[in-house]
TrEMBL record:
Domain Remorin N-terminal: residue ranges: 24-82
Pfam family, one: Remorin_C
InterPro entries for this protein: Remorin_C, Remorin_N
Coiled coil: 112-139
Protein name: Remorin
Annotated family: Belongs to the remorin family.
Protein species of origin: Salix koriyanagi
Region (Disordered): 1-46
Keywords: Coiled coil
Domain Remorin C-terminal: residue ranges: 86-140
Amino acid sequence: MVEQEVKKVEAVTPVAPAPVETKTDVAEGKVTAPPPPVAAEKEKAATTAEESKALAIVEKTELVPKKVSGGSIDRDIALADLEKEKRLSFIKAWEDSEKTKAENKSQKKLLAAWENSKKAALEAKLRNIEEKLEKQKAEYA
């Protein structure tokens, strides 16, 4: 598994770079190094103050030790486990599919029943209105 931790980056005092061998005096065995640039040190000092406030994400990964193969038996067991997981995932997918089909079917039936009840209610209101109009028509005549 991969775990993530947030750690605060602490300010680090700038360390002078390791001396680089540029010229060697064979007779004396001395090593001379060029002087470090002053501008680079000033930039490092400015950026370390900003970096001290920054957050960094550090990922920890757990290494799963690989089993030393004992032969074909371990491989066969691993393959059997894999087949079992595959079969179980197919079964779960099939069950989910069937459940979804059943839910869709019941939703269609409920929707049809709701539509029919609304139609019946509207038709009843329409008949009442028509009867009232027929009565008014008869009175006027």
